[in-house]
Write a sequence for this structure.
């Protein structure tokens, strides 16, 4: 099988996962899940499932690098984008369960990073031609919701019960809906393409603040439930949960 730039992405995610296992850090939950998604995307590219497979390979590589760079910025004591700042800080400060760590990561990556990566890959003049593959990649990203629930349910009966509590018709999970996130990301991509450089900067700052605010609201609105879940989950080392998600 020919090599792919996504092989590099998988290797970088694996390095982050290994570091978090060594440090017993909850920051390893999101990359453990994201590596599985990247492997699925790589398989879809190899099976020629997109309209433009080479373009999608580059897009997913750039998309993943936005998270990877945010993680390393945070570890160096620098400031990543606001959505990643709250997601990564929550991994070291707040007593929240794995499920919320993953939702915060998805919020930052899909509600903010996805549109930027799409425009960077397609270019402003080609964004309309990108729509079909954009929605295809979101079908694969949508599998993250099921993966979250199935992986964590392997760890604890309590987490399985929370899975049943929050599972809705459209896979809305604790206030995070892939359908809504996908549509907002596509709208964001279209807006970026029609903005001037100054307008883009202003709009992206506004989006950062809005996505950060949504994360803050999630943490506040679910605080009582998730603190309760965390008490049961706290008996498991982060490395155990990371390895479960990685399966």
């Amino acid at each position: 099988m020919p090599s792919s730039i996504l092989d590099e992405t998988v290797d970088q995610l694996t390095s982050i996962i290994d570091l978090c296992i060594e440090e017993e850090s909850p920051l390893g939950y999101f990359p453990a899940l994201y590596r599985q998604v990247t492997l699925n995307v790589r398989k879809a590219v190899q099976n020629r499932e997109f309209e433009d497979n080479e373009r999608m390979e580059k897009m997913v590589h750039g998309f993943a690098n936005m998270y990877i760079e945010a993680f390393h910025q945070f570890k160096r004591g620098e400031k990543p984008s606001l959505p990643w700042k709250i997601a990564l800080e929550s991994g070291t400060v707040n007593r929240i369960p794995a499920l919320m760590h993953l939702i915060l990561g998805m919020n930052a990556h899909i509600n903010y990073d996805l549109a930027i990566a799409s425009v960077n890959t397609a270019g402003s003049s080609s964004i309309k031609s990108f729509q079909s593959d954009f929605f295809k990649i979101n079908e694969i990203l949508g599998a993250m919701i099921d993966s979250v629930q199935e992986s964590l349910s392997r760890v604890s009966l309590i987490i399985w019960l929370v899975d049943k509590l929050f599972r809705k018709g459209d896979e809305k999970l604790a206030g995070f809906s892939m359908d809504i996130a996908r549509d907002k990301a596509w709208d964001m991509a279209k807006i970026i393409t029609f903005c001037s450089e100054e307008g883009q900067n202003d709009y992206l700052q506004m989006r950062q603040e809005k996505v950060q605010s949504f994360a803050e609201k999630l943490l506040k609105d679910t605080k009582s439930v998730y603190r309760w879940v965390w008490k049961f989950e706290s008996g498991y080392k982060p490395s155990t949960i990371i390895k479960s998600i990685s399966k």
Q: What stands out?
A: The chain is about 75% helix and 0% strand. Residues 5-246 form one domain. The chain has a mean pLDDT of 84. Residues 45 and 54 are 8 Å apart (CA to CA).
